[in-house]
Each structure stands twice: as structure tokens, then as C-alpha cells.
Amino acid sequence: MRKYKLLQLIQEAGVVAVIRGRSAEEAVRLSRKAIEGGIRVIEITLTVPGALRAIETLAGEYQWENPSAENYAVIGAGTVLDAETARAAILAGSAFIVSPSLNQGTVQLCNRYRVPIMPGVMTIQEMTSALELGVDVMKLFPGNLYSPSMIPTVHGPLPQVNLMPTGGVNLENLKEWVKAGAFAVGIGSDLTKDAVSQGNDELVAVKARQYVRAFEDAKAGS
Q: Which residue, 47, 119, 156, 200, shows the most beta carbons closer than 10 Å to its own?
């Protein structure tokens, strides 16, 4: 039940903040600001130096079990390339795992511990293989190689596939991805680039509010 509760929370939140940074400390700061702005699902990429430390810090500060709590947020790990790294991230407190590609060992490890795994896929063959491994949600990556029409096209032969486009999703096209049937959307550099370039972390909270509002509007059909 834990696994499916987490997947439900991610779907309801709709927006996953993909946080990169030059250090664990920067990733933690940016994540806190994204949460302050209303984004409740945070993916710390393991390209961040000290990423596991950042995950451990955030997982200690934020809880996902009670969505009404003030400190509610779901903390996960991204850019996970193998089962060993996935296990380390889970031990650090990661509630979910995201990978840029489909790796059988990583999926099997996550399934063993009932942790949601969202591997990256590009082709129908990869999606079919992911289904056979028991994957519930797949990351359509890189999303900027596709248009939102990719989702209904996939749903023709594979209506059971849940896709989360990541890479290239922005405020201008988010509504189209949601209308097309995206399970959720991953937001990367667009969320943090202005804050990092200007040295003003508050800009992350500002942009996060815009994304949350855009997602809510898209779901409401406005």
C-alpha cells in the first residue's frame, strides 16, 4: 500500500521539481524554496555532489505520510543509474527513484523494497519492457524531443502506460501536457536557473507558485 500511496500523492501533486545544484547545501536550499512555493514532490538528482546527504537532510525535515501537515513533501532521488545507487538513495530516505533509462536491476531492486521507480523511456519497446518488469510510471525523457501528442499516440496501443514527461516542460506547454494525459510533469532548470544566475533563492518560490497555479488551472480545464 505504501508504494501506491506514494504514486497517488505524486499524481495529485502533479509537478515534480527536479533539483540539481553545485553542492548538497545548494540543492537543499533550492528544494526548500520549491516546497515553500507549493511544489510538494522533490527529486534530488545524484549528479549533485553530496546528493545523498541532501536527500537525508530533506527526508528528515519533510514527511509525506500526512499531506495536510505543514512539513509535507515527498523527497526522491533522480539520475539513478544502477541498483546499488538506488539502494543507497533508499537508505538515505528517498521515497521514490527516478532514472534516465530503463535498467532491469534498478527496477527489480525498487520492486523488492516496494519503492516507486520511474525509469526513463523513449520507445514503445522500452515501454513494453518496463511494463513487463512491473513499472507503474515511466519518465518520458527527454521530453523536449516530443510534443504532448506523444501521450495519446502511445495510449492507442498501450492505454495502461503512465507517462511523466521531463525535460522541456515549461509554463507555456504544461497545460498541453496535462490535457494530453500526463501522469505528472517533471520541471528542471526552468524552475531554478534565474535563482542561480541572480543569486536569489526566493525566485524559486516565485516560479514554483506559477507552476502549481498552472497545473491547477490545467486540471480544472481553465
A: 119
